Structure formats: C-alpha cells, structure tokens
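Problem 3 from the worked examples.
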Amino acid sequence: MFSKLSSFRLHNKIFFTYSLVFMLMFAVIFGIATILINSAFNAQLDKDVNDLRTRISNMYAQFLKDIRDEVAAKGQDEDVQEALRRAERGGSREIPPTSFDVFECGNSEGILVLSQLANDPRIGRINTEILKIKTDDTHKDVKDTIRERKIRIDEDPQLVVEVTQWWEWGFITGGKSLQKWLIGALLSQPSEHPVFLVKRKNEQEEWVSLNNSAHKSPNLKEEWEKQLKLNQAEGKPIDELVVTMPSNQQSVSLDTTSETLDTPIYTVFRADILRAPYTPPNQLPFVELIIAYSHEERIQWQDRMLIILFWSVSAGAFLVYVSSFLVSRRITRPIAELQKGVNEIGEGNLSYQIAVESKGEVGELAEGFNNMALALRKSLEEHRSAERIAVWRDVARQLAHEIKNPLFPIRLSVENLQAAKDQPEIFERIFKECTDTIIEEVDRIRGLIDEFHQYARLPAPDRHPISINEIVNTVVKLYMELSQAQKIEIVKELSSLSPLSLDREQMERAIGNLVKNAIEAMPNGGVLTLRTFATPISEDFTDDKFEEDSETHIEIKDTGHGMSKEVLKNLFNPDFTTKADGTGLGMPIVRRIITVHDGEIDVKSQENVGTTVRITFKNSSYHTGEEKL
C-alpha cells in the first residue's frame, strides 16, 4: 500500500492524507457519540423504569388511602351500624349499598355478622386475624392486606385489597379488586410498556394483562421463560431480562402512524411494589407486577440520532473531501508549475519563465528558478559561443594543416615548370607530370573544402516517410563489392518496422559512413552485422500503443581491430583521425546528422574484438502511422 502511495502525485498524497486524517477523526467522533448515545439511553432506561415503578407505587398508595377513607366513613355511617345491630338481633342481614367489592362487619368479639357474600359460611365465627389486628398495636398501623378470594359466587378468585377499621362496637372490613383497579388505572394512561399482574396458584404463575400494550403482547411470557432458562443455564443475571419478540409480533406502540419495529424488544422487570405487609422479607411477595419496558421508542430515537449523526458526519466528510481537494490543488499548483518549468528546461527551452503568484517559500523558489533559468540560458549561450569559437578554431587549424600539405607539391611543380621552360627537350615530360600533380592536389583541396563545407553547413533534413530497412539495403549494395574484396561476410537481421519520417539522403550518408568505417576496420576479413529492431520504452506499454511507446534501433557491428579508450573518447572531435589521409570529419558529420534528426548514437568498442554502433530514434513523432515494412 505504501509503495503504491509513494507513486501518487503530490496533490493526491495531500488529498489522501487530509481525507484520511479527517475520516479517522469523524470515525472517532461517530464512535464516541454512539457510545454516549447508548449510555444516555441506558441511563434513561433505568430512569424510565424507576419512574414507572414510582408512578404505580404512588397510585397504589393513593388507592389504599382512598379505601381507608371510605372504610372510615362507612364505620361512622348510622345505616351500617343499624344494620350490624339488626343482624346481631337475628334480623335482616341486608347491607346498605357500598362502592366496595368486599364489605364485612363484625362485633367487638371479632365475630363476623355481615358480609356482601350471600350465605357466607364465616358468619357467626370468630376471625382470628381480625382479633390479632385488634390486640396487636403493630398490626393496627398496617392493617391493609392483599388477599386472593372470590368476590362473588362462581367467580374466579381475584386479588382484593382489604382495609379493616375498629370501633368500640366492632369492626368493618372494606376492600376493592386490585386487578380491576390496576386495569382501570393503567388503561387510563396510554403507555407503550406492557404491564402484567402475576397471580400464583398451585406454584403456577398467571400473567394478567393490565393495559393495551400487554394485550398486544400475548406471547411475552413464553419468550420471557425461554430467556430465563437460557440465562440460568449460562449463569447470567435473571433480575432484568432482555426479551426479543418474534418478527411477526405486533409492535406495542399506540401511535399507529409511527414506525414500528419488526422485532419488538423489551427489558422485563419483576416489581414487588405491591408487597403485602404481612409477607416476611425473605419470602416472595404474594402479588407482583411484571413491567416490560419497551425499547421501541428508545431504538427509534436512537436510530434517528444515529442517522442524524451519520448524515452530519457524511456532510462533514464531503466538506473535508472538497476542501482537502481544493487545498491540495492550491498547494500543489505552484509545484506543478515548477515541475513543468523543469521539464521545459530539460527539453532545452531555457527562455521558459514560471508565472507563480504564490508568496512565501514557493514564490521565492519560483523566482529563484526563473533567475536560474535566465542565468543558465546566458551561461549556455556564452558556452556555445565559446565552444563554436573553439571548434571553428580547431577546424581552421585543421583546414590550414590539410591545405598546407598539397600546397608544397603544387609549389614544387610550378618551380619545376619555371626551371624547365628554357629546356625544350625535358619541358614536355616535366609539364605533363607537374600539371597532373597540380590538378591532383587542387582536387584534393577542393574535396577537403567540400567536406568542411558540408560539416559547417549541413542542410536541414528534408523528412519523408521512409523505411529504415530500405536505407540499410541501399547502403549494403553500395559497399557489397568492397566487402567482398576484403572477404567480409555481411549479415542482415532486419525486423519489420513502421516507416519513420527521416531525410533519406542524410541517413544513407550517415549509415554509409559507419559501414565504410566498419569495412576499413576489417582489412583481413570478418563479419559485418546490420540489425534493425524496436524495443518498448517502459514495461507499461500496451500492444495497441506499441508504436508510440517504442524505440527504433539501427545497429552496425563489426569484428575488426576495435578502438582504444583514448580513440573512443575523441571519436567525435572534428580534428581527430586515426587514418593517414583522413580529415577527422566523418564521425562528427554522422553524429550531426543523427542529432538534427533528434536521435542518439552510441558506440561501444574493444580492441581486437570489434565495434558496435547503435542509432536510436525514441520520439513517437517519427512514426507515420503507416503499416510496417
């Protein structure tokens, strides 16, 4: 990954770094916010459950107070006292109408005299529990009890809250159905949390639905028992169980317009807020409530907050993306300009100036680069001028030296003619020899001047699409007779190449000069190999773009006497030659022809082994798009 990252451009690296840092920051924020939201909702869960417990407990306390007040009021009612006295005298046992579900009256001995239940078998008997309340002051303070009893004949047993009040003449017990009161109290308060009343009978539990949410979750007890067994098997706490209902279970939400959960989730609590006052502390309460706290609203709010947080983070990430992209572009634009300037300078455009408006270090760097380019251009011009002067000085010296050599035989021939003009018998013979010598030396001087002229004023190449292989074949034909005379074997290894836009005459002259030098390097015979081929510039080329991504090579290899390092070093100097009658301009002319065609020439040689000259054209503009030849 890091190796691939190192190949990115600078603005991509800056953009990637900015984005990575901000995305990590947002990921941390998102994670912390998610943890805080979950923590807040868990704390809210405990608070809501405690509030629900407290609300039911307060409602129950008010319910008990109302019963006590009503019982106390009934005990002072003259109609009730008169009914009690009448019943003791054996008269009617009819009880005045009351709002109680359970109503009983008895005398001062604790004997039950009146009861709402017709033909109550307890009438006329002593109620020991009532007497205990009468004699035990500790029970008088908590004389409300919760009992399971039948309110009417043929009814199922119901939980009844009873309150007993004592007077000098006897007692009154009044009570109401706890189950009916709970149902009425909880149904009057819409809630998404199911509440059940636990009734025990023969060690079995029955969950009685007390509100609408409980009615909508009939299978909650079964799922709770499954989770209870699972937690017991795994040794997990069983006080507060999290129960996930099946996917087909209806939502407990009372708002039909709101979104519902596919799988309702509840935290189930057993609440003993209705513990009977006579229940020992180490014994399970006689009656309990099951509160199933619904997670629906919590999850919906949590999901909304997470969605809001997610979109906020996404929006922030998008802003970071845009800002980091713009910042990276702004930072790297001057650097890109500097890179472009470096490329222009590298291609020889020393007049190129960078237009960078940035201030600070980048602006100073751009200004320094422009000054460097101007100084380099001035230095290069001075260097070229000095080089041209030095080259032409050497050329002039070489030209003077080469012209001086034929002048001596010309002068000698003229002097001989002057001496023989008065000697007719030898003049004819001397005249013929001297004039031939003069003509030969003059031709030599003219050839020398022509060669220097060609070196000094090589014309601009007249480019046309030509085949490299055709040029090689033409040169081979030209020197075939000479090579055969020296017993040289010519080997051609020509690949199929596309035409290049070159000057045919100049290329034939350059390759011909190289072939001629190779033949002259093998006076005793040898092998001359001419090879043409193409190679890719880089490994990332494709077949359909091979022409644009390749280099074309021409290779001339001989098995001659080779060259020493000193000769190889001075090979392209215009005043250097190893031949007795050479001008030293052959190889400089070859290099100049290749150079004006934007090509490269490379020479490798080893004494007594041979020499290899390779010409390379690597600019894609050489290709003409025509088929390979």
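Problem 4, a separate protein:
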Amino acid sequence: MTQRPLGAQISHMLKDRGVDVIFGIPGVHNQEMYRGIEEAGIAHVLARHEQGAGFMADGYARATGRPGVAYVITGPGLCNIMTPMGQAYSDSVPMLVISSCLDETAAKRGQLHQMKDQEGAARTVCDWSETARTAEAAYGLIDRAFKECQTGRKRPKSIIAPIALLEARAPIFPVQAGRPERVSSSLDVEGEVLSCLQNAKKPLFIFGGGAVGAMMFCRDALTKLGAASFTTYAARGLVGADYPLDFGSSLARPSSADVIAQADVVVAVGSELAEVDLWRDALGHRSQLIRVDTDPEMLSDRHGADIAVFADASDFMQSLGEALVDYQHSSDWSSTSVADQRATWRAEIDTERPGIVPVADALKEALPPDTMIYSDMTQFAYAAKEFYPMDHPGHWHHPYGFGTLGYALPAAIGGCIGRKQGETYAPTIAIAGDYGFQYTIQELAVAVELELPLLIIIWDNGKLGEIEDSMVRAQIAPNAVVQRNPDFCKLAEAYGAASAAPRDLAAFQLAVKDALAAKGPTIIHVKSDIALTSS
C-alpha cells in the first residue's frame, strides 16, 4: 500500500525504523496515529496519565539504549508529558514525543485543547520541537530525530502534526538511509594528552553517564596508568568496586574536592560536572583539566578545560588504551588510602541518614546481579547512590537533573518492558518514597494489566523527610512536610498487585526474593525504622 492516512503512515514508518513499542493515551485529536499501530505490528502500552507515558518511554530508553516513543494529544496531553521530557533532556535520554495539534489557532478561539503556542511550549523542555506541515516534513523530522540520537547527545525531540494532516492520505515514507556512524574525531592521543598522563604521578579520571558505553576500555587504561577514578551517579558500575583506586560515586562529598586537588592531571570523560554531580561550584582541581565530550558546550564551560577533546568516550578510551600498549605505570595513589577514604564517606552517609545503609546492604544481598533499579526522589536513593555497589553500569536510573517526583514506578514499567526477552523479564525494581510514589500511583494498573514481575519498594518515613531536614538546617519551623498515607498494602490489593510489609531485614530480603519470582507486581512497604527493629 502506497497511500494511507498520515497518522497510519507514521506508525508504519516507526516500525520500519525499529520501534516495537509505543507508550501513550489515545484521544479524538490523535486517534489517526492509532489507525496503523496494530497493522504495523507495534505494541502499545496504555498509560493512565501522559506523565506516566513519558516516564515509561524514558525508562524504556534507559534500559534499551533506543529512543522511547510516546503518542499524546493536543494541548493538555503535551503539557502533561512535558515534565518527563524535561527529565529526559537533563539526563540525556533519547525520547520522541509525537503529538497532534489544531489546524489553525491564529484566528479561531475556544477550540478543544487549544494552546497559544504548543510548539514553543514543548521547545522549553526538549532538544527541539517542530510542527510538520506536510507528510514529507513529518517523515524528515522522524528520521532527523533518530539520526541525531544515534550520532550526537541523546535528548528528547517533539514532533507535532495538525489533525487534518494526520487524517489526509499521504504517500509512503522513504526508504531508510544507512545507519550513520556515531560522532567521533580523529584522535591523536600520542600528543599532548598522552604526554600529560604519562608524566603524571597522580592521574585521576572522572567518568560520567556519557562514558557508560566505554566500559570495556576504561579499566584497561586506568590499570596501565595507575590512575585513580571517580564516577558520577549516572556512571556507577563503570569501573567496578573491585578496582583498588576507585573512589566511587562520592563526588558530592565535600571532601572529594580535597582528593581531586591531589591529582596532577584530571581527565573528565562524558560528564557535565554539573551541580547535581558535585553539589558545589568548583570541581576542586589544581592541575590540568582534560575534558572529553561530544557536546561542545561541555568543552567550554565554567570548569575551564585546559585541553578539550571533541570525541565519543568509547573512541577516546579505546585509542588511549591502544596508545598505552606495553605501558605500565605505578602511580603515587595508595589503594589503602582510597579504601580508607571510601570507608570514611560511607560512615558519613550512615550518620547523616541513619537506618538506610543496612537496608541497602540487605537489598544488595537479595537482588540478582543483573537487576535494573529505577529510583525516585527519596532519601533512600539519595544515600544509596553514593555507596551502593553496582555490578553493571547503566543499571541504576534516577531523575538526577530535573529531579522529578513520581519517576520511579512508570520508568521501571518502561524498563521492565524493554528488558523482556522472549517470555522472560530481567529483574527490574522501583524504589520510591511514600510521598513521591503517590504522584504516579495510578500507573500500578499498567504493571498489573501487563503482569509485569515488578518489585516496588516504598520507603516510608511518613513525611517529606528531605524537605523537613532542609527547613531545619535553614532554621525554618518545618511546615507542610507531614502527610497522611494510605494503607499501601490494601491499595496494592485494590489494584490487583501483591504486597508485603516486612518488619525486619530478614523478612525484607525474603519478600524481595518472593517478589522477583511472582507473576505480576509486588509492593513492599518498608518503614524507615526497619533497621532499628532488626537490631
């Protein structure tokens, strides 16, 4: 068939470009996009709110590395998904949001779902937002979105199509062009970069989320150079806790600046070195700073790179390793000192947030190594992401930059769907606070509907604990930080999910194992004093 309504053609084109699942909610304005979904062989996941659909697409993208695709309606549908789009933008997650729009708004008022500037609104939270006025433009924008996700920094895109255009018959989409190569430069690590590293007595690498794909090359280069390392939260597991010179994901510890100041060359690979990585303005380095990134903005930011390398992290680390063939250097870093520093930071976390460290340790013991974790903005995650040892990089996802509540549950649903192999789902869990969980609690229905073996841990301290702590530090009398919670186990039952409310760590571990073996989702309601109860 060469002629179909454009809405149907779009679904067929997405299938041709490798899309196998779409998250969204149909409405009278975007129903033409649903005409071709089943015919194209694409699975559709019906979210209970567009925000949930967006977080599911985000979670799917993080789990698979492929763009998450969402269909939403004009106006409120687009507005509702803007929060997930903002989260995906800040965390460099590939997402494609396709929405309908009104055919004409300049001279006509009072229409259903009317906005003053839908395209402009979306543009504030994504890489780009464009309205397709022809079928050819729609096809070109779709290919542009996928190609940019393959070659550059992965970020969400918004494509908007007028209702009449979606309904109109359109020619078939063009044949897919060859897959473009990823962005890289011709690397000459034999030059200044290699000289700096080989002459250094205390080289230090900082790996960010953009370096996750370089895992197979990082450990080799670090070992040859005798280099120490940090990872941002997004890159945890990249180096491995068994590497004796790895300081872990403790950049946010204030004293990490003192450690960084000891280095005589610092190499930051695939990291923004953003506020949410450091929680301070200055990195703390006193030596040369080498930045490696595919985003030119990162190479000229406030940290002041002495050497800027525009390159893909994998290309750079592979080239560096090849340039260091037969090279073995013993640096002045001490593995004993590194271990002592990590132990100090762990003790600080345990003191600052009592009761979380033993529960996180118990969780680690109970989970299989290939478990993928999605966490919300909750104190449990704030603590655990600093010390929880990861077996694989890219297996703990968190709303780092934008910091949106309600992320964990729908994102974990998307991740669980993306990790299905045949009839088997790889172990996937969500960790949310008692307050944040209620932002997107309705998406539990999706997990029940699809019989996803999803483990959902609710960390319950009965309040907005982080906000209360912040108010106290600011000498503000805590206000509006305590809420009345529902009975989470009965709520799970109402949705058709299983539940458990363990009272000690042994029961908690047993509940975790049972949940991973269940058919369908399980809520585990954990009181924040469970570690004290266990002792």
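Solution to problem 4. The two ends are 68 Å apart (CA to CA). Residues 182-186 have pLDDT under 50 and may be disordered.
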